[in-house]
């Protein structure tokens, strides 16, 4: 049994076309879909897999994610935001093709010390933003159903860290593990979504498919996975997420 999602439209955001092309294709195929261009972003509003949704491509990085999330919340007033895409796996037991659902998110490149503790968002007094348990439980259930259907990959939940850096070296991964030993994946947008949603008191969730190990091979593994698998994973899991409720 899936957890019940909040009433009202669901906002779905991704950073790159390869993460969301299939989902946007499904959205555009709906007869009643509306397109709105705001702040150099095209927002698609309509029904998707039986739920009212707003879907948008944000662009890469924390600033792009924050602009997009703020615009979506103020313009379309969704009941919740869900960020989908790929990430580098940094936990020892994680592999390419696994799926991560964030319980908390943090900016690993934020450091205003000695004025504030490292990783803490200045003047907020927090470093980690908690995702919605209801949304995250529903995403996890959807991911399990999808992974069971393809017979490959495992589900992980925990801390996902964000920074305006593409992590692509074993040394950088070791540093992140030392600094944040409970982090399981690294990407470039999720913590920005978390902070914006915290400011607007709106629930959020972050879904990431592991595309690489964030090591010296990431520059090759990441684009291959993005081209071959990411969009299909996002479409399949979001379909389960929306139609299961």
Automatic annotation (TrEMBL):
Residues 9-229 form the Nucleoside phosphorylase domain. Pathway: Amino-acid biosynthesis; L-methionine biosynthesis via salvage pathway; S-methyl-5-thio-alpha-D-ribose 1-phosphate from S-methyl-5'-thioadenosine (hydrolase route): step 1/2. GO terms for cellular component: cytosol. SUPFAM superfamilies: Purine and uridine phosphorylases. Transmembrane segments: none annotated. Pfam families: PNP_UDP_1. It comes from the Bacteria. Keywords: Amino-acid biosynthesis, Glycosidase, Hydrolase, Methionine biosynthesis. CDD domains: MTAN. It is an enzyme of class 3 (hydrolase). InterPro entries: MTA_SAH_Nsdase, Nucleoside_phosphorylase_d, Nucleoside_phosphorylase_sf. Its EC number is 3.2.2.9. GO terms for molecular function: adenosylhomocysteine nucleosidase activity; methylthioadenosine nucleosidase activity. This is adenosylhomocysteine nucleosidase.
């Amino acid at each position: 049994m899936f957890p019940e999602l909040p009433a009202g439209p669901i906002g779905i955001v991704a950073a790159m076309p390869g993460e969301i092309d299939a989902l946007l294709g499904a959205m555009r195929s709906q007869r009643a879909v509306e397109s709105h261009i705001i702040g150099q972003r095209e927002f698609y509003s309509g029904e998707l897999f039986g739920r009212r949704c707003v879907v948008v491509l944000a662009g890469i990085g924390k600033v792009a994610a924050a602009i997009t999330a703020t615009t979506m919340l103020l313009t379309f007033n969704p009941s919740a935001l869900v960020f989908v895409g790929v990430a580098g796996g940094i936990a020892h037991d994680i592999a390419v093709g696994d799926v991560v659902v964030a319980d908390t998110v943090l900016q690993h490149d934020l450091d205003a010390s000695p004025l504030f503790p490292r990783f803490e968002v200045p003047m907020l007094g927090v470093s980690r933003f908690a995702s919605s348990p209801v949304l995250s439980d529903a995403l996890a259930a959807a991911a399990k159903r999808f992974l069971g259907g393809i017979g490959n990959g495992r589900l992980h939940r925990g801390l996902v860290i964000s920074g305006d850096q593409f992590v692509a070296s074993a040394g950088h991964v070791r540093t992140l593990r030392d600094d944040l030993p409970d982090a399981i994946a690294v990407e470039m947008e999720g913590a920005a979504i978390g902070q914006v949603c915290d400011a607007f008191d709106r629930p959020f969730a972050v879904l990431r498919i592991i595309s690489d190990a964030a090591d010296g091979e990431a520059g090759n593994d990441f684009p291959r996975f993005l081209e071959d698998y990411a969009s299909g994973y996002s479409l399949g899991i979001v379909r389960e997420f929306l139609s299961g409720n």
